[in-house]
């Protein structure tokens, strides 16, 4: 007997009414069932599911991303002009940094809008992962800009150029004010998801960069120490890469469907195998759809050839254990009894040193 079931739990991380439903099963010999749905009705049981009404939270996040983007675009134009007039690399680099950040924050805003679209026949999981893609692109762009600025800073070290420190100082102070306003706007939403976190890191980097440019402008204006300009550029770049690397690593891990950090697959397997009537578990996969929603699928070997209704009750019990014990939102279990069931469904591979197949 091979019994396949699929259950999803939407927790407090998910906003709105994009109900990706799903509690269904397939068993050998089970007669097909007709499903009659009324408009707006979900095709599955939602027992134990909690659907919050958080449209306001999502709308506030999108609005703040938009205002932050517009503010940064406006100031970037001012900073480019000031950088050209003062001949300051650190100011121009800050302007380039701000330009990239403005684009990145606007991309984060677009990603935020797209991620709220409902699942369809082409994107059955919905569009939540679009925010992860945006976070990845933002991180790559930011690191690339820093590497470019390192090259320009080296060139300025080798061939110092005169800089108008007072102009540099005035523009940098204006930049600091603009960046502080942007940071304040996004601060309350910085932990909402990886996409907003990436945008917030852009702004924090901009703020630090403005402070450094102000200090550099003072040194150049008062003492004509022009080598401070490329030095500040390098220091700010190192700081930005240090903080951006975490976003790049996490977004890459999600896109590669890596096992969620903190989720012990061996512990999950042990929980399933400890259930009476379960002989073993294999073909186990765990991944994240975005930075909040964990998915898991597994094949469960049964000791006895259970009836479909009995297997369903056992599956529901296992799903409850995994949902409550590990915070897994979306669980798909295939219940098997006869030895060839896994091979009939395409076979599976095993994790080394455990026998947990994935």
- Report the strand count: 5
Question: Briefly, what CATH class of the largest domain?
Answer: Mainly Alpha
| Structure classification | alpha+beta
* Largest sheet geometry: 5 strands, mixed
What is the gyration radius calculated from CA atoms? 27 Å
What amount of the residues lies in strands? 5-15%
**Shape designation:** elongated
Number of discrete helical segments: 9
CATH superfamily of the largest domain: Cation efflux protein transmembrane domain
Helix share of residues? Answer: 55-70%
What oligomeric state is this?
A: single chain
Spans of at least 5 consecutive residues whose pLDDT stays below 50 are: 7-58
Write the layout of secondary structure elements.
Layout: E1 2-8, E2 23-26, H1 55-86, H2 89-115, H3 130-158, H4 165-187, H5 194-223, H6 228-255, H7 265-273, E3 278-288, E4 294-302, H8 308-326, E5 330-336, H9 341-344
Parallel strand pairs: 4-5
Antiparallel strand pairs: 1-2, 1-5, 3-4
Helix pairs in contact: 1-2, 1-4, 2-3, 2-5, 2-6, 3-5, 3-6, 4-5, 5-6
Question: What does it look like?
Answer:
A five-stranded mixed β-sheet has the order 2-1-5-4-3, covered by helices on one side. It has two domains: 55-255, Alpha-lytic protease prodomain-like (Up-down Bundle), CATH 1.20.1510; 259-344, Alpha-Beta Plaits (2-Layer Sandwich), CATH 3.30.70.1350. The model is unreliable at 7-58 (pLDDT under 50). Helix content is 56%, strand content 11%. A hairpin with a 5-residue loop joins strand 3 (278-288) and strand 4 (294-302). It has helices at 55-86, 89-115, 130-158, 165-187, 194-223, 228-255, 265-273, 308-326, 341-344; strands at residues 2-8, 23-26, 278-288, 294-302, 330-336.
